[in-house]
């Protein structure tokens, strides 16, 4: 989950016109008050429901990023002590649904209030998509939902922390396009 300082930085970034792709299976699981307000005020989420069910399959909608993508399996990876799951979202009316779960609940949405900023939020870890969907161009389609901005590509490095890390010194570096 995001702490208050991280949430504050994300708010400032979005208020300055930023674009955010946020994939978090646990942001809305027992959220802090600041995480609740962030989700409701910035992510286009009216409400959510965590029924503690595991992520198994998601279904594409008529959103351009998932158009033509039918039922897709999400690989289960158990991050002890939490099991993988998605949270059913109730988006605001202006948000677009990209993927739904087995129970027809939205689990990935796109939100852009008055074109001030843009957010794609996934309530499950998109890194668990099966390899075929990655190769099908889904990520390219998701990023194409935003407009590219010129300049140097962004580079973001994180050192993952897991209760049972396979390699505690692992650092993940992600690079890609700047989005406007």
Task: Describe the protein.
It is a single chain. The protein is an alpha+beta fold and about 180 residues long. It is built from four helices and ten strands, in the order αβαβββββββααββ. It has a six-stranded mixed sheet with strand order 1-8-7-6-3-4, with helices on one face. A two-stranded antiparallel sheet has the order 2-5. A two-stranded antiparallel sheet has the order 9-10. Helix 1 (about 5-15) packs parallel to helix 2. The longest helix has 12 residues, at about 5-15. The radius of gyration is 16 Å and the shape is globular.
Structural descriptors:
10 strands, 180 residues
Strand order of the largest sheet: 1-8-7-6-3-4
Structural class: alpha+beta
Amino-to-carboxy terminus distance: 25 Å
Please give the oligomerization state of what you see.
single chain
The rounded Rg comes to 16 Å
Number of helices: 4
Q: What is the mean predicted local confidence, pLDDT?
A: 76
| Overall morphology | globular
What is the gist of this entry?
The protein is α+β, with helices and mostly antiparallel strands and 180 residues long.
Give the topology, please.
Elements: H1 4-15, E1 19-23, H2 33-42, E2 45-49, E3 57-60, E4 71-73, E5 88-91, E6 96-101, E7 106-111, E8 118-122, H3 131-135, H4 138-144, E9 154-158, E10 172-176
Parallel strand pairs: 1-8
Antiparallel strand pairs: 2-5, 3-4, 3-6, 6-7, 7-8, 9-10
